[in-house]
Write a structure and sequence with these properties.
Strand content: 25-35%
Number of strands: 5
Radius of gyration: 14 Å
Structural class: alpha+beta
Number of domains: 1
Oligomer: single chain
Distance between the termini: 10 Å
Largest sheet: 5 strands, antiparallel
Helix content: 25-40%
Shape: elongated
């Protein structure tokens, strides 16, 4: 269930305007459902920066004060010990809404990809 929630969150970043017309209604009251393109762009820029350069356990934050949206990415070692993968604690906020998810990302072909086989 948790994997599907994370997958839905990441997918809706690109299609947040159509979530209400699909099977993604469970995201209706989550911060990402309120994000605009500028917010998801900031979130993903921060995600990739954190995965590429941040020390384990050090949060990298983003904020769009105009939209009252913010979040943080805290990278850590991959629970399975793979050198090309990292665990990311993804936290997002919109006004009083808050969500947090632990997601494993692996670098494939020079790009970070969500590890669907991971147990996170």
């Amino acid at each position: 269930m948790k994997r599907f929630l994370v997958a839905g969150i990441l997918m809706t970043a690109a299609v947040s305007s159509v979530y209400a017309q699909s099977n993604l209604r469970f995201l209706q009251d989550t911060p990402i459902s309120k994000f605009k393109k500028a917010d998801t762009d900031l979130m993903f820029k921060t995600l990739y920066q954190a995965l590429d350069t941040a020390e384990d356990g050090k949060a990298v934050t983003w904020e769009n004060p105009k939209a009252s949206n913010s979040g943080s990415i805290t990278p850590a070692k991959d629970p399975q010990g793979r050198a090309d993968c990292r665990l990311a604690k993804v936290e997002n906020r919109h006004l009083t809404l808050y969500s947090t998810h632990d997601v494993v990302f692996c670098k494939v072909g020079g790009k970070w990809k969500w590890d669907k086989a991971g147990k996170q």
